[in-house]
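Quick illustration, no need to memorize.
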Amino acid sequence: MRGWVLVLALFAGAANAKEVSVRSEAADQKQLTVTVYETDLFHVNEQRLLILPEGRVNLRLADVSPQMQADTLLIRPLVSTNAPKVLEQTLNTQLLTPKSLLENFRGREAKLIKTHPTTGEETAELVTIVSTQQGIVLKTQRHIEATVPGRLIFPDVPIELTPTPAIDILLDNPKQQAQLVELSYLSKGMRWQANYVAELAADGKHLDLTAWATVYNTSDADFSRATLRLVAGDVGQIHQPRNYDMRSKTLMNVAMAESAPPITDAGSDYHLFSITEPTNLADRQQKQLLLFNARQVAVQKNYELMGNGQRYYRHASSEPETQHALIKIAFANRADNQLGFPMPKGAFRVYQRSAQPLLFLGESLIDAQPEQRQVEIGLGRAFDIQAVYQQTDFKQLPAVNGVAQTESAYSIRLRNSSNEAVSVTIAEPIPGDWQLLSSSHPAQSDRTPTARWRLSVPPKQEQVLNYRVRIRQAH
């Protein structure tokens, strides 16, 4: 079956005009800019210098992305004087393969070469390819062959077939001259993600941070010496079914490209990172490019316990609940803290060096963090800091104006088995319209959806938080 060809514009003019074929490849590129988005989308903008003869020209632009969105294609001459007129443009993805070559020669002649099994002598015979369905059927001068008893030699390559996807353009060129042409299109098959690597100081008060942009290319195309731009932000797209084979692809890791940090532009609703040096983006390649470095960033280590709002709806069992505290580090994304950069969403990994080699402490995904924002990273759960939750009372109160009421009391026993004093935030998401009736420690926010307490616990000791809450919950 023949590959598909999508016609993007209808052709106008005399159909019987003599056409001259011209092929352009990546070597003709004078400029190449690739803009990659965080989703599976990238934008190619390139300029090619072409020598076009006068008259009707069938121009084939090769070395384009096979996953191009054909309806986004834009081609225009950059010089208006004697500029060629585009009559028709076609995205041709009928690739040259043994199968497609056979299919295009169905009903045509090819040369069959047979080799004598004893002497090795070769003989040639003209055959007609009759069928290529579920095998090959040949017609010789004497009979029909259901297999190929040798090898086939073809006189030419059909013009419909191309080694790589190409754009076929029918031009009307008024004068032979060099033409600088701009080509622009969107394509699937490339995305990028920010990755952050932090080394926490032994005392836990500072960290060194390196931010990388990891670009994943699964577009089936190579882009050499491209000016690379990275867009941070969610760009709206029309989701359409893809018209290509989504083969599984294996990414090959490459060395990190450590160069000057990119130039950032926040002039629109997105953040644009422009990589300062041209780079190569090979197919099935994963490349890391430096976004920024920051040294001696001041951080705070915090511990947090997040409660379960479901416990406030019912009488709990007598068995206590146990939870280990979540470890968090926080820092200010400000210039006076060695930062002040827009931080795209991505994976944040933290290591720590002490007397031994680096130790991995944990990782989490962070959302996009603008400048001046406080950034908080969850690492894992602390082995030595533990809380034991116990419901000590539960009452179903009479309803008031059809609104159900409950009153319950809790005890949270906070244990610190480490050798250092710690400060722990206890966060309790309390449902409904609630009122804190009593508390052994002052609450930091007693009328918001989440009640918070901050307790300091000496080493090898414990603290107990007791509180009582009334909840009004409409049916």
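The mean pLDDT is 85.
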